[in-house]
Amino acid sequence: MKGKEINYFGGGNTAYGFVHYFETNFQQLNRLFILKGGPGIGKSTIMKSIGNEWNEKGYDVEWIRSTKDVDLIDGLIIPQLKVGIVDGTDPYMIEPRIPIVVGEYVNLDVAYHRDALIRRKEDIIHLFDVIQRGYKSVYETFQRALKEHDQLESYYIKEINRDKADQLTNEWIKDHIPEGKRGSNPVEKHRFLGASTPNGPIDFVENITETITNRYFIKGRPGSGKSTMLKKIAKAALNQGYTTEIYHCGFDPKSLDMVIVRELDWAIFDSTAPHEYFPSKTNDTILDLYALTITPGTDEKYASDIQETTERYKRDMKKGIEKLKEVKQFEDKLKEIYDQASNFTTIQSIRKQLNDELIKEEKTL
């Protein structure tokens, strides 16, 4: 029987540029294979092939999805083996925590026909330059959108009842985070539940919370205290000694979108656009922070300003996604050049060597 699968993003195209939290998810691994190699060399293909093989054997797999193309993999973790494989090239630039002992490089560049790439040198340099400038434009556009979002939040921040918000958060913590585990060593994992991609915003909320019995859907407007509440909940869970999954906002990583403590069987998350969901399970619960903490009539009071600001925000977000699509077209051209210069026999040999190492780890279980 197949093992379970969970999908999430380790990094994101945000208003602060590309941000990632890969390393926090590798803390419990005994071995981490860091793939080094240029575009089109098959890093994602190797990881998907190995991950699928072990998943079919009954092992759980964590898929760390790519923001460049959600069908691609930036990393995978097989928890039972305590093994991970990750793309360690730009923009991640992952280094071994303890070289060789825990983390080790796998060089895929040996599979390139160098002469074939040298013949396309000018094309390659041009594409790298265009891609770099493209991402710079994407992040500048998202930064403008963030300023508009901050303006949108300001209308509700002026109308929030902070005492009610604090009371609601404290009561939730008291009811859902039992005391008594202090002194343990909780693991703090940081991730993204969704991301801005060339295909628009994509999230894995349903998959991430699939096995969770108690899900809390936070509703509200920008600035109604959703992220603040989640930060306090995450801090309280860690302080009490519970391993905690902390999911950042794919647009503004300084904000949080979700907190999960699987040991306590609950997930609480921002369930508003672009990752808006509604209860579908027996124990699903809605927490409407607009109704509970914001002055009644706030929407109506600032209606004109809210509408204008929202339109500007959505316009710039749409522009940012369109720019990501343009960048992907150039990245695809670059991958094609490198792909044509790849020795697939060598790549398959590296894939086998990697998988053999996982088989060795299985024998030690």
Essential attributes:
365 residues; 6-stranded mixed beta sheet; alpha/beta; 10 helices
Number of strands: 16
Q: What is the residue-averaged pLDDT?
A: 95
Name the shape in a single word.
flat
Helicity range of the residues? 40-55%
Instruction: Please report which band the strand proportion falls in: under 5%, 5-15%, 15-25%, 25-35%, 35-45% or over 45%.
Output: 15-25%
Largest sheet: 6 strands, mixed
- Give me the number of helical elements: 10
Low-confidence segments, given as residue ranges, are none
Q: H/E series, N to C?
A: EEEEHEEEEHHHEEEHEHEEEEHHHH
Separation of the first and last Cα atoms: 19 Å
InterPro entries: P-loop_NTPase
Organism: Fervidibacillus halotolerans
Protein name: PRK06851 family protein
Question: Can you walk me through this structure?
Answer:
- The chain is α/β, with parallel strands linked by helices and 365 residues long.
- Helix content is 43%, strand content 22%.
- The chain has 10 helices and 16 strands.
- It has helices spanning 43-56, 114-118, 121-157, 162-176, 205-208, 226-239, 289-293, 298-301, 303-340, 344-363; strands at residues 5-9, 11-14, 17-20, 31-36, 61-65, 73-78, 83-87, 103-107, 188-192, 194-197, 200-203, 214-219, 244-248, 256-261, 266-270, 285-288.
- A 6-stranded mixed beta sheet has the order 1-5-6-7-4-8, covered by helices on one side.
- A hairpin with a 4-residue loop joins β6 (73-78) and β7.
- α3 (121-157) packs antiparallel against α9 (303-340) and α4 (162-176) packs parallel to α6 (226-239).
- It is flat, with a radius of gyration of 22 Å.
- The mean pLDDT is 95.
- This is PRK06851 family protein.
- InterPro entries: P-loop_NTPase (IPR027417).
- It comes from Fervidibacillus halotolerans.
